[in-house]
Write a structure and sequence with these properties.
Blueprint lengths: L3 E12 L6 E12 L2 E6 L6 H8 L7 E6 L2 E2 L5 H11 E4 L11 H10 L5 H14 L15 H13 L5 E5 L7 H14 L6 E6 L10 E6 L2 E7 L23
Parallel strand pairs: 3-8, 3-9, 6-7, 7-8
Antiparallel strand pairs: 1-2, 1-4, 4-5, 9-10
């Protein structure tokens, strides 16, 4: 097993106050290892999104701590957490969150702009990230000119362009048909083969479990089970072809 990349230790989260007070998470312990695609599964209201927000340093836990590469972020101020998020976390959402007036390459480059990277080097990194997800032929395309599956690949390229330690994907296939959903999971599984990186996919779709290295179930704010995959690698994970080799888009 590779080294831990991200660890949640006894994390609890209370949201709201008074009559609206909700115990969203209760003493959650979760470890993400390098070279693995981990799935977090649970019904609506189980605490998946709250935990993802805490792991992505967008929300501070009420108690407990989150460690990234062995360094605790407990008691970190907003500026510190924002820096950790920029340096270590790549986020992928269900609804893509692309800018409609920017090309695919420009949408990816936004992730470098917020880190102060610009110019020809940033453009090259953007193009390389799109090549990694099989979209070299869509560099100058706008979101309206791409299918849902292609748009989600742009979102993945944006998440990985800065080589983060952890990729957090929130229901990344929910807006896609089965074929495109499986294609997206193939991309994420290939990314997760990097031993210096970990991928966490939050989903309620049990049809995707064969892509995972490890499966955690969450219910009523608690991790209630862990299921290792049969074998050390996701069964669908295959290396992505380099550069322009991927041309066929399934939708």
């Amino acid at each position: 097993m590779n080294d831990p990349i991200l660890e949640a230790k006894n994390v609890s989260s209370v949201l709201g106050s008074g009559a609206g007070r909700v115990q969203a998470l209760k003493d959650v312990n979760l470890t993400l290892h390098g070279g693995e695609l981990t799935m977090l599964m649970g019904p609506s209201g189980s605490g998946k999104t709250t935990l993802l927000s805490i792991l992505g340093f967008m929300l501070t836990p009420t108690s407990g701590s989150v460690c990234i590469r062995g360094q605790s972020t407990e008691n970190g101020d907003a500026e510190t957490l924002a820096r950790v998020r920029r340096e270590h976390i790549g986020l992928i959402f269900q609804s893509y969150h692309l800018f409609p007036t920017l090309t695919a390459a420009e949408n990816v480059q936004v992730a470098l702009d917020v880190r102060g990277e610009a110019g020809s080097k940033a453009r090259t990194r953007s193009h390389d990230a799109l090549a990694q997800v099989g979209l070299s032929h869509k560099i100058n395309s706008y979101p309206r000119e791409m299918s849902g599956g292609e748009q989600q690949r742009v979102a993945i390229a944006r998440a990985i362009v800065s080589t983060p330690s952890v990729i957090l994907a929130d229901e990344p296939t929910a807006a896609l048909d089965s074929g495109n959903g499986h294609a997206i999971m193939d991309v994420l599984a290939a990314i997760a083969k990097d031993p210096s990186r970990s991928v966490l996919v939050v989903t309620h779709d049990s049809r995707l479990t064969s892509f995972s290295s490890r499966i955690h179930s969450i219910e009523d704010g608690r991790i209630v089970g862990e299921q290792p995959a049969a074998g050390s690698c996701p069964v669908h994970a295959t290396p992505l072809p380099p550069n322009d080799a991927v041309r066929a888009e399934t939708g």
